[in-house]
Specification:
Elements: H1 2-16, E1 23-33, E2 38-48, E3 55-67, E4 73-87, E5 93-111, E6 114-127, E7 130-144, E8 155-166, E9 172-186, E10 189-200, E11 204-215
Length: 222
């Protein structure tokens, strides 16, 4: 326990020491069951241009999911609201907002002791007078380090790649590559600290991330 927390602290310290060209994303993911089949997904992301206090985006998502199988396959219909602040010069920002409707299919696999997750997502994005549909494919891998299973007190490595495809221009919108160290505070609660690189047609930028995950399984009542 002490070793794992020390490793998380050292990783956070080294990433915070980077220049302000590295942004910071604070993220919460929550998944709560309604029945054995239905679940509610909640997500909050507070994104900064620098370490903290220079808002880039505030992203709020929620959705209703349906389990096709008890644990491994889920379809979801969701809604997202995004408040953005974009620099128009070095000192002035322009505020914008975006509404999104999205549909996704998520499937999980176990490979040895590792967990592999695929997510396929379609987004319909409404921004001011524009409509911008987009497809996203997300592939992640979690590898336990000090235990055979991903459960309480488990220290693990996390990595993912996500590609975004739009319906116009070059079709490529962006790609995200992520690596992190995580720790299961509880069977239902885990914390990740990592670094994500986001590449678009215009730039490549690093984002330091702290993410908290709250996953609650459904339990039948007598």
């Amino acid at each position: 326990m002490r070793l794992s927390m020390a490793l998380l602290f050292l990783l956070a310290k080294s990433l915070f020491a980077q220049e302000s060209k590295t942004g910071n994303w604070l993220i919460y993911f929550g998944n709560q069951p309604l029945t054995s089949k239905l679940n509610v997904w909640n997500e909050v992301q507070y994104r900064n241009y620098n370490t903290f206090g220079d808002l880039q985006q505030l992203l709020l998502r929620t959705g209703l999911g349906y389990n096709l199988t008890p644990q491994n396959n889920n379809v979801l219909l969701g809604y997202g609201y995004i408040l953005g602040e974009t620099y128009i010069n070095k000192t002035q920002k322009k505020e914008s907002s975006e509404h999104r409707i999205f549909q996704q299919f998520l499937t999980k696999q176990s490979v040895l002791n590792c967990q592999l997750t695929h997510r396929y997502r379609m987004e319909q994005r409404f921004s001011e007078s524009q409509f911008k549909p987009r497809f996203r494919y997300f592939l992640s891998l979690n590898i336990p380090l000090n235990q055979k299973e991903l459960k309480k007190n488990c220290l693990y490595l996390s990595a993912y790649n996500e590609i975004f495809i739009q319906n116009r221009g070059t079709y490529f919108d962006r790609n995200r590559v992520y690596g992190a160290m995580g720790y299961y505070l509880h069977d239902l609660l885990k914390l990740e600290i990592g670094l994500m690189n986001q590449t678009t047609l215009k730039e490549s930028r690093n984002q330091f991330q702290i993410a908290l995950f709250n996953q609650i399984p459904f339990k039948k009542t007598r």
